[in-house]
Amino acid sequence: MRRVYLDHSATTPVDPEVAKLMMTYYTEKYGNPSSVHSFGRDAKAALENARESVAKLLGAQPTEITFTSGGTEADNLAIIGTAEAQSKKGKHIITSAVEHHAVLETCEFLEKNGYELTIVPVDEEGLIAVEDVEKAIRPDTILITIMHANNEVGTIQPIAEIGKLARDKGIVFHVDAVQSFGKIPIDVVAMNVDLMTVSSHKIYGPKGVGALYIRKGVRVIPRIYGGGQEKKRRSGTENTPGIIGFGKACEIAAQRMEEEAAREAKLRDKLLEGIMEKIDYVKLNGPQGEKRLPGILNVSIQFIEGEALLLSLDMMGIAASSGSACTSGSLDPSHVLLAMGLTHEIAHGSLRFSFGRQNTEEDVDYVLEQLPKIVERLRMMSPLYDQ
Amino acid sequence: MRRVYLDHSATTPVDPEVAKLMMTYYTEKYGNPSSVHSFGRDAKAALENARESVAKLLGAQPTEITFTSGGTEADNLAIIGTAEAQSKKGKHIITSAVEHHAVLETCEFLEKNGYELTIVPVDEEGLIAVEDVEKAIRPDTILITIMHANNEVGTIQPIAEIGKLARDKGIVFHVDAVQSFGKIPIDVVAMNVDLMTVSSHKIYGPKGVGALYIRKGVRVIPRIYGGGQEKKRRSGTENTPGIIGFGKACEIAAQRMEEEAAREAKLRDKLLEGIMEKIDYVKLNGPQGEKRLPGILNVSIQFIEGEALLLSLDMMGIAASSGSACTSGSLDPSHVLLAMGLTHEIAHGSLRFSFGRQNTEEDVDYVLEQLPKIVERLRMMSPLYDQ
Amino acid sequence: MYTEKVMDHFMNPRNVGEIENPDGVGEVGNAKCGDIMRIYLDVDGDIIKDVKFKTFGCGAAVATSSMVTEMVKGKTIEEALKITNAAVAEALDGLPPAKMHCSNLAADALHEAIKDYHQKTLKV
Amino acid sequence: MYTEKVMDHFMNPRNVGEIENPDGVGEVGNAKCGDIMRIYLDVDGDIIKDVKFKTFGCGAAVATSSMVTEMVKGKTIEEALKITNAAVAEALDGLPPAKMHCSNLAADALHEAIKDYHQKTLKV
Ligand SMILES: Cc1ncc(COP(=O)(O)O)c(C=O)c1O
Ligand SMILES: Cc1ncc(COP(=O)(O)O)c(C=O)c1O
Ligand code: FES
Ligand code: FES
Q1: A326 touching chain B per CB within 8 A
Q2: What are the domain boundaries of chain C?
Q3: pTM of the prediction?
Q4: Looking at the complex, does the CB of residue A145 fall below 8 Å from at least one CB of chain B?
Q5: Angle subtended at Cα B336 by Cα B334 and Cα B337, rounded to the nearest 5 degrees
């Protein structure tokens, strides 16, 4: 059976070149970068080389990059680390309704511990209004944390504008760029960003590696104490093979980004057109055109539930994801779709296809062949569907 | 030139079988374990399989294992997580003078934030007296954190006795077992341990992976918030290839432990004897015999400084480590050696050889051929050495 | 995640559909929570001669619906009333913990349908 | 970590040893901190004819000692006094930031030796 992986926003395969390089550092150049001997020095040099590659893709300086175990840890370090560093100045934090759980749950943890939270809404396309952020700012606001591109619908936020606002007011600005990094251009300087989260496994690097950009001069209280690695910002023996893999993945992403974005956008549009043509009662979630990531397509297929769709697609070899609550066993569907004003019913039937480097036109054709049959079958079972 | 890696306490190469397995999960079975589709389910199943392997080597239940990004993070989670969970009961913590920085620095972070610390001393072999721990206990003691085996000198602490004491008094007992795990038998139940830290890269698994054993019923406040992975104890997309590699490394360690311990102890003793025979003014650091890890040998070579020794050994292809301050650029040498009563001068000249699976008798012969020449050369340069 | 039996009942659900002029209909859940089950009964004397279902919900919801219809077909009303949520889950070789509320729905829908049947019969 | 020059001076240190009846000796550091440097001078007129060192310390400590002896050999006392810590580090193509205090030692030891020479000369 054909296998079509269309869940690259969840995670990507490791690029073969990246994997090969990592192997060398697992089995041959395995030294601890803190060690004096040549095994250690080789590892250290490669680690610093990776730091440069990550920095470059962000428009940052290598010294501004702190490696972490992933995007989630970087988000936590940025948010809690800033809250603790700035707590004397104030305890008010601004975020948005469509952030990843790594941001939202972290903010809510702080809320339980004496901080105040303002959650800025989004419009029906998932877009934040800069004015809403501006209105939310108070004298005791210490942090604004807004994502660059949304992981469920792909909406790209007006980061540079929000960054300018934050910089003017002297408020620390954190951006979760896990989904946009390596996919669309980023320049932390032009965007007025103080802290930015990125993750390796979304750009064909290994899982368990991420980084936080910390602008020179911005203070963040560490979350993990120990041997003082990463300039004391994040202790723990460095995951050198992982970090080196991440660095390589950044290099490859930098080379391919433009071409790949155009390619994926074309596949995405083809899939959307085909779905719209072949299936009725379908709603596109998120914006059209420029304001979205090239690789993400999110649609709601009415009268059926997302997990049932995913399972059926999976039986045909197609891997996708859903904002349905039933995929996670919770009761409420995706907070992102609800924040965009979708009803529970429609949110439950949402389906996300996220494209990647190995996807082809034939993959899209295959989905367009299978999906209508699946929808038909599930709708026949649905008490909500009365043709 | 011959290359002899004798720094396995710092880190180990990844076992080829482990590396091969990991490759599969990097490039083929790359799904996110949270995903509904088969890519995700395959990853999830392998992840749970790894959890079993880790649990087994600890004598624990799989549900009691929480994966982290390494030993340092697990130590932080155990210590800060317990302190926060128990802060209503008290704010007193007991630890020892020879803990790893991941424990000591974390305890000191808590001390700065309103907790009180009692640091139990060690004798000249690096051994903690159970009575000293008992004496340190107060009504408001909430946590005892003591390492199983020391990373610099290999001393094995009387964990089961301290555990019994802690259990009797209802105090949470955390053990950093990063160095002993997979090297000597561990049974968390028999040892009365509540929390135990282990790390993958010390047992031929990948860097950037560790685990915390959390005994059923023991509460630990999480440190990283997000998608709720690891039963909400540690959010973040799981490093599946790394965790799966760790699981495999545990399986291999379980098979080889006994035989390998005997083999390494023999090499270690051969090296010690040779050094004692060929070089004068040498002091063994740490205990003789049973109370030490099989693979670690720590000696102080008087009148010379550790980093100079390491660099010279490295020029001959030999990788070792030192408790010298100069290897890290700090001013005080190893807190472990100082706690054992060594003078600064002697501590500065310490040298740690730590053995691993690929080491042979020939390796030892080679070191015994090179080391005396190096010592001779450096002593000729030393103003402290007046023959 | 799901057992083979669950996947079988999900992919090849038994007794999907509606019964025209049913003797009893039961509906539980609501679309807001992501699941609705509707069960139709055709009763002859005391025997459930035919049973059909329509379900909006996850794989577990579909599978439990299918399973419960298979379990009651040909049974007496009395026997059907004895079918518990646990029994449905067990017949499917178990459900993931997070999905146990789906199995609650299937037996509930059946019992609602029987209640409806009783009410209709009484009225006659 | 270290430059090639540092490693060269560490592995092949110049002017290791002692001078019998030196015209000046300088010692800085202490073993407690992990480093001691001792520099011996043989001065002829105003010229440093010979210079030797003994050092207990890390690679950087040995290399800076060696380098400083090479830098002063044949120089006048006046010229030698102008040698700064920074100059020694620079002559080695730089030192890691954490090791900069080692370079401080070498020039200090030299200056101590010159001080000792001055004292001895004055006494004569
Ligand atoms: C927007 C966003 N933020 C944060 C994360 C978390 O990153 P990681 O998976 O590396 O923990 C993800 C992905 O899971 C994401 O999509
Ligand atoms: C005793 C001990 N504890 C903790 C650690 C830290 O573990 P990791 O290197 O996985 O962060 C180490 C090793 O560095 C160790 O030897
Ligand atoms: S219908 Fe939502 S979990 Fe089953
Ligand atoms: S002598 Fe200690 S750092 Fe150089």
Answers
A1: no
A2: 4-122
A3: 0.96
A4: no
A5: 70
User: What would the pLDDT profile of C3-50 be if each residue is shown by its tens digit?
Assistant: 999 999 999 999 999 999 999 999 998 777 778 999 999 999 999 999
User: In this structure, which amino acid lies at residue B296?
Assistant: I
Task: Report the sign of the C-alpha dihedral through residues B146, B171, B188, B79, in that order.
Answer: negative
Phi, psi of C38 (to 5 degrees): -125, 130
How would you label A13-43 residue by residue, b for 16+ Cβ within 10 Å and e otherwise?
A: bbbeebbebbbebbbebbbbbbbbbbbbbbb
* Residue (of A286, A24, A39) closest to A151 by Cα position: A286
Rounded to an integer, what distance in angstroms lies between the CA atom of residue B206 and that of residue B55?
18
Q: Which of A11, A151, A209 to mutate to test the pocket of ligand 1 (most atoms within 8 A of CB)?
A: A151
Q: Is A107 a catalytic residue?
A: no
Is C58 labeled as catalytic in the residue annotation?
Answer: no
CA distance B40 to A318: 12
C55 to A382: CB separation less than 8 angstroms, yes or no: yes
Q: How much is the pLDDT for B387?
A: 63
CATH of D4-122, one of 3.90.1010.10, 1.20.1440.230, 3.30.70.260, 3.40.50.300: 3.90.1010.10
Q: Is A331 on the interface with C (CB under 8 A)?
A: yes
Which residues 35-94 of A have a C-beta within 8 angstroms of D?
Answer: 36, 41, 44
- Which has the closest alpha carbon to A296: A335, A230, A351? A351
Q: Residue A383 and residue C33: Cβ atoms within 8 Å?
A: no
Q: What is the pLDDT of residues A147-200, one digit of tens each?
A: 999 999 999 999 999 999 999 999 999 999 999 999 999 999 999 999 999 999
**How many residues would you count in chain B?**
387
Chains C and D touch (3+ CB pairs under 8 A): no
Distance from CA of C88 to the nearest CA of A (A): 18
Using one digit for the tens of pLDDT, what is the confidence trace for A126-147?
Answer: 999 999 999 999 999 999 999 9
**Cβ(D55) to ligand 4 under 6 A?**
no
